[in-house]
Design brief:
Distance between the termini: 48 Å
Radius of gyration: 26 Å
Largest sheet: 4 strands, antiparallel
Structural class: mainly beta
Strand order of the largest sheet: 3-4-5-6
Number of helices: 2
Number of strands: 32
Mean pLDDT: 81
Strand content: 35-45%
Length: 446
Amino acid sequence: VNASNATRAGGIARSLDGGVTWTSSILGDVGDLLSDPNNSGLPRRSIISSIIFDPVNRDVVYVLSSGAGVYRSTNGGVTFTPHNQGIALQTHGAFQGIAGTMRLGRDGSTLLLVNDGIIYQLDIANQAGAWTALNGPPDAIVERVEKTREGVLYVTTQLQQISSGRIPFGDGGTRADIGLGGVFVSTDNGHTWRQIFTDMYHVTDIVSASRNSDILYLASREGKVYASARGSRTVHTDWVRLDGFNFHHPKNIFENPLNNKSIIVSSHCGGTWDVVIPFDDPIPQNTATLRVSFQGRTAPQGPANIERLDVVWAWTSNGNTFIAEEIVSTDHNGEAQITLPPASESSGLTIWVKGERTLAVSRNIEKIEPGSTINVGVLLGGDANGDNEVDLNDLSIFMNNYGRNSSSPGFNRLADFNNDGEVDLNDLSILVSNYGRRGAPRPTLP
């Protein structure tokens, strides 16, 4: 319930009969804007921007009050108490509080809050728990956050003016030289981030589909709605613009509970649109077989060939560089299934591959077809600390583990370069043969 801007009185209303009658937390004479005539525990001088029910216990309700923070109810919304422990409250106008967004993660157990560009999360199973801050993308101002069932984080970020120049934009005209907008993804709870949508757009919302976490929808303030079917592997060229939204300033995206072939998009200026989505479930993805061999692992087949690999694709299109990353594990044959870049980018590719204890290799691929095999050759060992070079640090790790085997206390398997379960002279031979070498540099965006 949001009253006039003059009073800024606000609160919530409850109905127990399907919306026939309502009880409001702000009934009574407006008078003192901070009074609470119904003793709900909510401040009157606030605007409620989010109401979220605990999916396990529907009597537990969280609300976000702009200018006051998060409040929690354990009796179905009759009374509330503040729940802001761990949140850095900022000053807005004449009072302290929060101006941000809050939503429930797809995992059903995490509340996510963005306050003044900072990401917070709360484990709602821990009733006395505090909010914890997460690292966002460097230099970016976060606006919305989404968390999938698998724990992948997506954030939208606000455009920022980075110079006073003017640049071409959209279908014509110019705008201030701005950037750091778009969408970022993190697969490690905010420790590292990768940009997956152009930084020239102010993205107002991003949502992952409940039926398939790889399906993503986003809306940008420029009046456009996009979708991708590649989840955390999404790169800039994977986004498909959706028809059906023909207005400016889309605000929120909602799944259509009556039709999984469309989404509902609301706008800042009022109104909603039913937008058809182009993806089926499950999403087909083109894959290929990656084949590697490891220095010092002589058996053509066997458990010694099992290793985690970092795989990075890089390519250039229309003068722009694109990156796609994933982590895979090889089988007894030294092979792994990898996801290919978009079909439109099937030539002029570079693939970069690094094992947990090997130096990286890089190969240029002229043409790749789905279902084919990519052989990148031998991965050289000796990199115990994973920094892509073999030096004194790796030698130190080796010496600390020399003579140990997989049954020994404190055994560090990353010093076992031939992966035979023990650290011995064979591993020393691999390290010495590559001492001083560096692997191929990891592709990065310019």
